[in-house]
């Protein structure tokens, strides 16, 4: 069915994960940092689906798909709370630069 | 051959949009590039015979979550050029070095582990199979995710409320 080897999918997922990790380290805008985290979660989802296709029995394949849906649900909850926190920080400090928001350190 | 070509095209667009998202200074442009990236990943999910997850990816991620991102960017007025944050230039080489190291570690594991053959059943990606598994075998994790989403909604409402009273 699929002529593309699994290692190609997994290499792509590893690359996307590494790009997301680099973005989390580089960016100063917390919204873009959240986007990079979403990219990393999607890379993990890609590995889940790749390995699900290589499982011998049907139940294990479906389990991989179910787990991807759980990851999407948790990501949605994370985004809702995270963006709420960003809006509150912007309301309090008029900036959302992650270097200037160091309230817990002072 | 056509499948390889399709995978190569999707992977190329996914990689270039991901790099563009990190490299772009405008958060609106980053969000739109990420939407394109999610579409490419959904196409790859289709090639992995995961139709339902691919559709959910487009509806939930590209449709709902990214609109939420764009909404907050517009709400905080971060799209205008004078609101752009300065990047930390000094840490840039170190971050890319770390990312390349992470990539190499992951890829070394990829080529150590995988020599399996794909075993497509065809039925695994359908909504019927996923739904019946989710509401029987995985019903308790589903309940936990439901509680998590409810708590998330209540928490974001509490955070967004103005404390004027």
Rounded to the nearest angstrom, the radius of gyration of chain A is 18 Å
Task: Tell me the CATH architecture of chain A.
Answer: Orthogonal Bundle
Averaged pLDDT of chain B: 85
pLDDT average of chain A, as an integer? 87
Write the element-wise H/E pattern of chain B from the N-terminal end onward. HHHHHH
By DSSP (H or I, 4+ residues per run), the number of helices of chain B equals: 6
CATH topology of chain A: Helix Hairpins
Number of helical segments with 4 or more residues of chain A: 3
**Shape category of chain A:** elongated
Number of strands of chain A: 0
* N-end to C-end Cα span of chain A: 58 Å
Written description of the protein model:
The complex is a heterodimer of chains A (106) and B (165). The mean pLDDT of chain A is 87. The termini of chain A are far apart. Chain A is mainly alpha-helical. In chain A, 76% of the residues lie in helices and 0% in strands. Chain B folds into 2 domains: 2-125, Up-down Bundle (Four Helix Bundle (Hemerythrin (Met), subunit A)), CATH 1.20.120; 126-165. The model of chain B has no long low-confidence stretch (mean pLDDT 85). Chains A and B meet through helix 1, helix 2 and helix 3 of A and helix 1, helix 2, helix 3, helix 4 and helix 5 of B.
């Amino acid at each position: 069915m699929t002529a593309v080897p699994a290692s190609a999918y997994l290499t792509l997922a590893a690359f996307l994960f590494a790009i997301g990790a680099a973005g989390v380290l580089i960016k100063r805008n917390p919204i873009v940092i959240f986007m990079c985290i979403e990219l990393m979660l999607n890379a993990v989802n890609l590995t889940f689906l790749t390995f699900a296709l290589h499982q011998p029995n049907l139940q294990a394949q479906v389990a991989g798909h179910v787990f991807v849906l759980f990851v999407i649900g948790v990501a949605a909850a994370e985004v809702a709370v995270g963006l709420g926190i960003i809006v509150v920080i912007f309301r309090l400090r008029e900036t959302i630069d992650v270097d200037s928001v160091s309230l817990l350190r002072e | 051959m056509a499948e390889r070509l399709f995978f190569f095209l999707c992977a190329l667009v996914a990689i270039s949009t991901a790099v563009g998202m990190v490299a772009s200074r405008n958060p609106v442009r980053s969000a739109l590039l990420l939407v394109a990236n999610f579409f490419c990943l959904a196409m790859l999910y289709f090639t992995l015979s995961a139709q339902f997850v691919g559709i959910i990816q487009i509806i939930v991620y590209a449709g709902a979550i990214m609109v939420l991102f764009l909404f907050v960017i517009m709400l905080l007025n971060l799209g205008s050029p004078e609101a752009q944050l300065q990047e930390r230039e000094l840490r840039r080489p170190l971050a890319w070095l770390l990312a390349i190291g992470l990539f190499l570690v992951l890829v070394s594991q990829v080529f150590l582990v995988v020599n399996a053959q794909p075993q497509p059943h065809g039925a695994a990606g359908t909504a019927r199979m996923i739904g019946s598994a989710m509401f029987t075998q995985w019903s308790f994790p589903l309940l936990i995710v439901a509680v998590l989403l409810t708590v998330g909604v209540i928490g974001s409402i509490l955070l967004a409320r103005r404390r004027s009273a």
